Amino acid sequence: MTVIVDGRLAADTPRPRHEPRPVATRVLCADPVLREAANAYLRGRPEVEVAGEAADVLLVFAETVDDGVRAEVESVVGEIGAGRDGDAVTRLVLVVGEMEERHLWWAVAHELSAVLARSAASWDDVVSALVTSRAGGADLPSATVGWLLDEIRSLDTRLAAVGVNRAGLTTRETEILRLFAAGLETADVARQLNYSERTIKSTVHAVKERLGLRNRAHAVAHALRIGAI
After folding, report:
1. In this predicted model, what pLDDT tens digit does every residue of 82-105 receive, in sequence order?
2. Cα–Cα distance between 124 and 47 in angstroms, integer?
3. In a domain, 156, yes or no
4. How many domains does the chain have?
């Protein structure tokens, strides 16, 4: 299945917008002419700051997403991450001709927030996607969203068959963390679930080790954050 159909950026007249802080953007494009044109245009937009290492968003122009583009993106994202402090992430905006399903999952794993078709996207569309991306939003074609939802439902079904949810937690682990989140202590959780306290402690320990969590509170916070409980 092809998600995006090839084309070129359409011309458009910039519309003034106002953001508290410009979106630090790094452009990745194999075509030097298009890359320079994109950088020149973005420098003229108050919402955007063309950046090098410390970028909020990586803007990628490509005819198609292939293994070469993936390698470049991963290299640049690693370079950006090495120069940043804290847990800030660099989001990904793709302006592409076509992208196969197998590359879509990869893009999602690399903080994909927007996919624009080169056949239809204007420069205004690109800037809007950058601003939305930095704000934590997404701009994805409806067909892409539908495909992702179908894949997530299928994944949930496969995981449920082996007793694991999307968070990587078993049914027992989920129930234990849910009760801890409700304020119960170890003895209370053990009594309510009819397990020994040793089983409760060893289960929480296994979750911490498997997911790289610091302590029980961190495990509960992780489960809450990802919507497992």
Report:
1. 766 656 778 999 999 888 777 887
2. 11
3. no
4. 2
